[in-house]
Amino acid sequence: MAITGKRTPLTFRISVWLAAALTLAGCGDGPWNNPYPAAEAGRNILYSSFSERPKHLDPVRAYSSNEYEFIAQIYEPPLQYHYLKRPYQLAPLTVEEVPHPRYFDAAGNPLPDDAPVGQIAFSEYELRLRPGIRYQPHRPWPRTPRGVTAIIN
Fold this sequence. Notes:
Strand content: 5-15%
Mean pLDDT: 82
Radius of gyration: 32 Å
Strand order of the largest sheet: 4-3-5
Order of helices and strands: HHEEEEEEE
Shape: rod-shaped
Helix content: 10-25%
Low-confidence stretches: none
């Protein structure tokens, strides 16, 4: 407003009062369109979203970080990488220890650990799960008197 003595138009004064009222109306306790429950307001919760619908929940076929956000909540692998050691080394996650291979020749006879690669027909790994870890029953995991045995060819 200038000090020239002229009166400001009524529409200008109304628009100033309306802008001030709208500005003050937004100064409440919180946002009026908060999508989260009021009971969770004081808790330490991180809400996030994903940018793309997951295509696969199979850990072998999954390749994006969106899928691994879901997979990590469903599936816990037997081994993980120890990220502080370089070069990377495997560390047990749901198994008691990192498995060591046992080598066999074509006739099924055991071979020593330092056997030449040409003599090794197949290898066998035994994974011992930690107590309390369970997997859903499935045909490749038949139950034997010793426990559950995986047969992978």
